[in-house]
């Protein structure tokens, strides 16, 4: 067990010096016994999020696993350590299984979606009919939403949103 912990720490240490790829974060999470328990009960990765500055490397991923037994979502933070959160109700009834082997990487989705001069970028991955990267650039009072196909890299939608506009 000590050897396994040392191997995981070395892997995490090496990853934090470069941009952490989603596939690597998923591998680290799924090596954790708490996440293995979710997977063994039929659970699966259903969402992933990260917030970065435009010139910043991705260092921490927030992964979300669906547990079909409890019908709850469990958050798993992967950075220098693996942190498993408490089960919560899903925000959406439709929960799709993400297959990271099919995806373009998050850093590539940011390049495709663009940063639009943003101070921060929220990157969110989900699966409905297909894998979707939402690249949300935060600039002043505006949100620039670029929806990128997670497999092909095609831009599916572009929107500018003013969240402070009164409807």
Provide structural commentary.
The chain is of the alpha+beta class and 167 residues long. The chain has one domain. It is 24% helix and 35% strand. The chain contains four helices and eight strands. It has helices at residues 2-16, 22-30, 33-40, 106-113; strands at 44-52, 61-67, 72-78, 82-84, 120-127, 131-139, 142-149, 155-161. Strands 4-3-2-1-5-6-7-8 form an eight-stranded antiparallel beta sheet. A hairpin with a 3-residue loop joins β3 (72-78) and β4 (82-84). The longest helix is centred in the first third of the chain and has 15 residues, at 2-16. The radius of gyration is 16 Å and the shape is globular. Mean pLDDT is 87; it is low at 10-17.
Strand order of the largest sheet: 4-3-2-1-5-6-7-8
Structural class: alpha+beta
Unreliable segments of 5+ consecutive residues: 10-17
Taken from the alpha-carbon principal axes, the silhouette is globular
Mean pLDDT: 87
Order of helices and strands: HHHEEEEHEEEE
Supply the number of helical segments.
Answer: 4
Helix amount: 10-25%
Radius of gyration using CA atoms only: 16 Å
SSE layout and pairings?
Blueprint: H1 2-16, H2 22-30, H3 33-40, E1 44-52, E2 61-67, E3 72-78, E4 82-84, H4 106-113, E5 120-127, E6 131-139, E7 142-149, E8 155-161
Antiparallel strand pairs: 1-2, 1-5, 2-3, 3-4, 5-6, 6-7, 7-8
In short:
With 167 residues, this protein is an alpha+beta fold. It has helices spanning 2-16, 22-30, 33-40, 106-113, and strands at residues 44-52, 61-67, 72-78, 82-84, 120-127, 131-139, 142-149, 155-161.
